[in-house]
Structures are given as C-alpha cells and as structure tokens.
Amino acid sequence: MALAFWLVLLHAPTHATANMHPGFKTMGLWLPETDERMDVAVWYPSIRVPSEFRIYEWTLEVSRNGKPVPGRFPLILLSHGTGGSRFSHHDTAAELAANGFVVAAITHPGDNIDDTSALFTLRQLVQRPRQVSQLLDHLLRDPAMLEMIDPGRIAAVGFGVGGTTALMLAGGIPDGAGWTDYCERASQGDPYCSPWARARLDALRDDLKSLKTLPVLRDTRVRAAVAVAPAYGMLFSRSSMSAVNIPVSIIKAGQDEVNRAPFHADAIRSALTPSPEFAILAEADHFSLMAACPPQLEGILPEVCGGVSPETRERIHMTLNGHLLRFLVTHLGNTPAFFPVEEPQPAPPPTPEVQPAQPETPPAVNATKGKRAKPRPKPRANATLP
To answer: Which residues pair with 43 in a beta bridge?
Structure first.
C-alpha cells in the first residue's frame, strides 16, 4: 500500500492492524438552540471489507454499517471548511478509520456548500465550535457509539475555517487584533479584501471589540488539535492564544491561494506558545486538500475541483494523511482500549406534586373518584472560501 511507504518515511508509530477497514454510518441531530438540523457522517474501524457506496453525489469506499472492530478507539472530530460538507474529506476520514480511529464529521449549518450565510461573521466563529461540542455531547450519550469511542482520547481536526474551529476548541479566542491593516499588507486579489468581505470583516472586528468576553467555546475533552490550511490568522494574537495548552499541529498548504502566507498558518504558528508542530505541503493549493470532486460538481465548481491533477492530489493526500496519522498516533495512540462502558445514569425521579389538603369530612359513600389524566409526552425532534 502506497501510504505505508509514506508512514515509514514520516516515522509514523502506527499500530493499526491489517484487518481494519473503514466502516461508515450516518446520523442526524437537532440543535434546539438554533432550530437547525445537523447531519453527521461517522467512519470507524470495521471488520468488514469495504465496497462502493453512493450517497448523494459522492461515491465512498466503505463498509456501510459494518460490524465494528472490538474495542474503544480514539475519536477525531472533523470540521470542514467554508463551502464544504461532512463528505469533503471522506478519503482522509476513511484512511484514519482504517488505521484505528473513529471519525465524526458534520455539515456545519450556515457555513456549507448549500448555505454560506454565516461567512465572515461572529455567528460563524461562535457557532462552529459549539456545533462540534454538541456533536461530541451526542456521541458520548449514544450507547452504540460509546462502545467504539474512548472518551479519554479525543482530537479536533479542521480544514480552512475548520482549522480555526479546532483551535478555538483548544482554547484560542479571536480578538481581531490583526485585521485593521490586513488588506494594506495583503497581496492583490486576497479574498478577504473584496469590498463585500471587507465590510463583513470590519463588522466582525467591531463585534469582537464590543464583547468583553466571548462565550466559552473551549472544550476540555479535546486533547489534541490539528489545523490544516487554517483561516483567520489575522484575528488571533499571542495573548488570545495563550490558553491553548494541548498538542497542536499546523499543516500549511504551500500554494494556498485563499489563506495566503504569511497571514494565516504562519501567523497562527507564531502566536502559539510553545511552538506547535508545523508541516508544509509544498504542492498543495487550498482546495487540493479536499477529496476529489464528484463529476456532478466538477462542472459547477471548476475553481474548486480542477486546481491540481489527480496524480498531484493523490501525492498531497498521502503526505497529508501521513502527517495526520503520525501526530494523532503520537498523542492519542490508535490501539483499542478495552474497559467497560459506563451505564447511563438514570434520570432523577420527578419531584412529587404537592397534593391539596383533604377535607376532614370523608366524601359520600357513592362519590366517584376522578382519574388523573396522564400528561402527553412532548414530541421528539427527528433525529469557499476559507
């Protein structure tokens, strides 16, 4: 297998067994806070050999609902970039699953291929980490998922603005410090400096200034973070990154035409103390980090789908996946843990209602007793730039 060569080259201490294959399942969550549905895709180590599976316009090589490999594995929370979806990095997710990781990816409401209304806004920055934490809450309450997840080994991995999401889950807080003169320093055609983007980012900077503190977005259950071609480097400073105290890896796309050097990956690297692990994918442009586009999207999004040749994309992804595996195995391991799944704690009994005082005079002999109506249960909800 070609990836094995790259893993040796990168000294990846992988211990995954040869009989692991990428299992796959989907689920949907309802976010009551915003009244939105969040779609989720999960890859996991399976004993069943994969086959071709079509879902929407995507073709995956997975074992759909395949029997999991016994044991509890590290969990990777995967966050896509703007204009993406839970399938944008399906090949990387499958490779991680085949090497001993459970990967859960969401389609971020308000910031995806069908809806970019939150782009360059405070809503985008704040809701993305919340959505990932809400996903984690759900996974750790799901009995079937708990059987395959080790809750003590969790990492966040993100691409583009998803990388920013991973850094915020690790404790980073945007302060807008570097935005004021960003466009004066940036190269011509920088996508953050179009009139539309600039107006939104001016408002975002003002929103950040007006907030004494951002809502708490750090998730202490996340033990490591990877930001691939991260966005919004100009919104962070050394002081705003000072709370990040878990292992971090920054992977820079050497030809990134969206999050351009030196204002994003390099700036974030400089803001982190201690210095994070840092790698450069020399051939990669921003969109080559995604899985190859399905044919239905190639004609619609040529600037996203056609930047590099299939051969170049394959080389980029082998190197990318090698970096991810080495870092994640180093900090989380990838061997299954075997320990009992804790039984969910029962809900506390309801507080008994106070009964009205009974009259001292007993009721008439032939009086009928009224039956108390049972309460009706509430209906359950059914479950690109940066």
So the answer is: 24, 103
- Per-residue pLDDT, 9: 39
Q: How far apart are CA 156 and CA 324, in angstroms?
A: 11
The pLDDT tens digits for 107-157 are 999 999 999 999 999 999 999 999 999 999 999 999 999 999 999 999 999
Record the pTM.
0.84
Residue 122 token pair: 């405070």
Q: Are 158 and 224 in contact (CB under 8 A)?
A: no
Give SS3 for 9.
Answer: helix
In terms of phi and psi (left: phi > 0; alpha: psi -120 to 50; beta: otherwise), the region of 56 is left
Instruction: Quote the CA–CA distance of 338 and 322 in Å, as a whole number.
Output: 26
Give the count of alpha carbons within 13 A of 218, CB side only. 16
Q: How many CB atoms lie within 10 A of CB 382?
A: 8
What are the strands, taking DSSP E only, across 47-148?
51-55, 58-64, 73-79, 102-106
Query: What angle (nearest 5°) sits at the alpha carbon of residue 57, between those of residues 380 and 47?
Result: 75
pLDDT of residue 300: 85
Q: How confident is the model over 171-201, as pLDDT tens digits?
A: 999 999 899 999 999 999 999 999 999 999 9
Pick the CATH number of 2-332 from 2.60.120.260, 1.10.760.10, 3.30.460.10, 3.40.50.1820: 3.40.50.1820
CB 328 within 8 A of CB 155: yes
| Cβ proximity of 179 and 234 under 8 Å | yes
Rounded to the nearest angstrom, the gap between the alpha carbon of residue 148 and the centroid of all alpha carbons in its chain is: 18
Q: What is the pLDDT of residues 302-342, one digit of tens each?
A: 888 888 999 999 999 999 999 999 999 999 999 999 877 55
Domain segments of the chain: what residues?
2-332
3, 321 Cβ separation under 8 angstroms: yes
Whether omega before 262 lies within 30 degrees of 0, making that bond cis, reads yes
Question: Are 315 and 342 within 8 A, CB to CB?
Answer: no
